Amino acid sequence: MNTRQDWRTRAKVAASWGLDRGEGFRLSPARRDRLISVVSPMLLLALWEACARAGVFDVRFFPAPTTILTTLLHLAGSGELWTHTWASLQRLFWGFLVGGVPALFMGIAMGLSRPLRAAIDPLIAATYPIPKSAILPLILLIFGLGEASKIAMVAIGMFYPICINAVTGVLEINKIYLDVAKNFRASRWQMFRTVALPGALPFIMSGVKLGVGMGLILIAIAEMIGAKSGLGYMIWNAWEILSVETMYVGLLTIAVIGYVFSLAINELERWIIPWKAER
Amino acid sequence: MTDKFKIRIRNLRKEFRSGGRTVIAVDDVSIDIAPGSFFMIVGPSGCGKTSLLRMVAGLDAPTSGSIAITDSAPGRPENAMVFQGESIFPWMSVWDNAAYGLTLRGRPKAKIKEVVDHYLDRTGLTKFAHAYPHQLSGGMKQRVSIARAFANDPEVLLMDEPFSALDEQNKTLLQEELLRIWEEHKKTVLFITHSVDEAVTLGDRIMVMTAHPGRSKAIIDVPFERPRSVLELRAQPEYGALVYRIWEQLREEVQLARSEAEKVGVAT
C-alpha cells in the first residue's frame, strides 16, 4: 500500500518534469511548438553570423548580426535612435488621431445611414486603390516639407482600412439589435454608442491593425523625403553615408514597433471585446 | 371610454411591395384589448402576425388604419418587445442588458439597480448577472430578454413568439415563469404565437388569424382562472376541448397557407 502510493507520487513528479516512464524526455505539442518558434530564428541568426564571418556573405550588404547589434547599442547610447523612434511614433499618433478617429465615426455613420453610404461609397471605392505612396508628391505640395505632410500620409493610410472595416462592421450587425434599440426609443447618439459602435468593434479592431501596418509603411516612405528626423530619415540618411548597419538598425526598430503594436492591440481587443467567445 | 381598452386597433392594413407585386400582410384587423389582459394572436406561419406586432411596436408604419395605446402615467414607455430569436446584446452583460431601457431613459442609478435586481431575481438570473450572452443557454437568453422588457416598465408588453426556438421542457418552464412575473403587475400583453397550446395556456382572449392576407378570423375567450399552473391546466379536459376548438379554426388556414406556399414554390 505504502509503496504503491510512493510510486504514484513519483510518477506525478516525473510527469511534471516532462518525464514519462520508459520513454524518457517528452514535451507537450504546444511546448514543442513554442520551443521551435524560439529556436529557429536563433539558428538562422547564428547561420547568418557564421556566413558573414566566414566570408560567404558580402558584409557590405549583409553585416553580421553582432555588428548590427553593436551599432544598435551605439545609436541607442548616443540617443540618436530614440530621437528618431520618438519622432516617428509621434507622427503615427497624430496620424491616427487625424485619420483613424474620423474614419471610425464616418464608417459607423455610413453603416447606419443608407443615403450617406450611397453618397460616399463611390468616392472611397475610387480613391482606395490609388497607391498611397504615389500621392506623396501631391501631399508634399499641399502640406509642405514639415510635420503636416508626414502626419497627412499616415492619416490617409489609416483612414481607409478603419473606415471600410467600420462600415462592414455595422452592416454585419444583426438587424434585430437595431430593432431592439429602436423599440427602446434610443436616440441617434444612443443607437451609435450602445449598438453600432460595440457591435462593429471586432471589425473596427481588424481595421486598426491593418491601419497601423499601413501607417508604418507610409511613415517610413514619407520620412525618406524632406524630413530631418524619424526612422525613415535614419534609414535614408544611412544609405547616403553608406552605413549599412544603421539601415538594419532602422529596419529592426520598425519591425519591433510593428510587433509591439500588434501585441498591444490584441491585448486591447481582449479587454474591450470581452464578449467575443475565447479564440 | 379610456378604461375599456388599453390597445385599440382599427382597420389596420399593411402592404409590402415585393418584385413589383403588392403583398397584403395584414388586412382590416380591428381589436380592442382590455387593460391588464393577456391577448394572444395565433395564426399560421407567414400570416402577417409579426407584421401586426411590429406596427404596434412602432417599428413599421401601417399602410392604413390606426393603433392607439392608452397612457396611464406620463413618461412611461409605450411598449417593450420580447423578440423572436436572439435579441439580447452580445456585447453587454446580463445585468446591462436588463438595465438597457432604464439606462437609455437616464433613470437614477439606485432605481435602476433596484428594478434590475428584482427582475433578474424573478427570472433566476441573479447568479449570471455579470455573464455575457455567449455563456448562456437559449432559455437563459430569452429570460434576459423578458427581464429587459419587464424592467423598462412599459404600458404594454409585446411578445413575438419568444419561446418558439426553445425545446419543449424549457418552453413549459418559461411559460410558467412568465405567468408568475406577469401576475405581479398584470400588464397588458399582446402575445404572438403559432402554438395553439401556448395561446390557450397563457391567454385571456385569443384571436385566430387567417392566412394570406392576415385577417381576424375569430376571437375566442379563454375561461380558465388565474393564477394558472401550466401543467395542471393542461390536465383539465376543458383545456383539451378548447385547444381542439381553436385547432379546427386554424386547420384550414394552415392548409391554405401550405398550398399557397406550394404554388409559389416556397418551403414552409
Describe this structure in words.
The complex is a heterodimer of chains A (279) and B (268). Chain A is mainly alpha-helical and 279 residues long. Helices cover 79% and strands 1% of the residues of chain A. Chain A has a domain at 81-272: MetI-like (MetI-like fold), CATH 1.10.3720. Chain A is built from 11 helices and 2 strands, in the order H-E-E-H-H-H-H-H-H-H-H-H-H. A two-stranded antiparallel ribbon of chain A has the order 1-2. The radius of gyration of chain A is 26 Å and the shape is flat. The mean pLDDT of chain A is 89. Chain B has 9 helices and 9 strands. In chain B, a hairpin with a 2-residue loop joins strand 1 (7-18) and strand 2. Chain B has a domain at 7-78 and 154-264: P-loop containing nucleotide triphosphate hydrolases (Rossmann fold, 3-Layer(aba) Sandwich), CATH 3.40.50.300. In chain B, the strands form 2 sheets. Chain B has a 6-stranded mixed sheet with strand order 5-6-7-3-8-9, with helices on both faces. A 3-stranded antiparallel sheet of chain B has the order 2-1-4. With 268 residues, chain B is α/β, with parallel strands linked by helices. Classes of the chains: A mainly alpha (279), B alpha/beta (268).
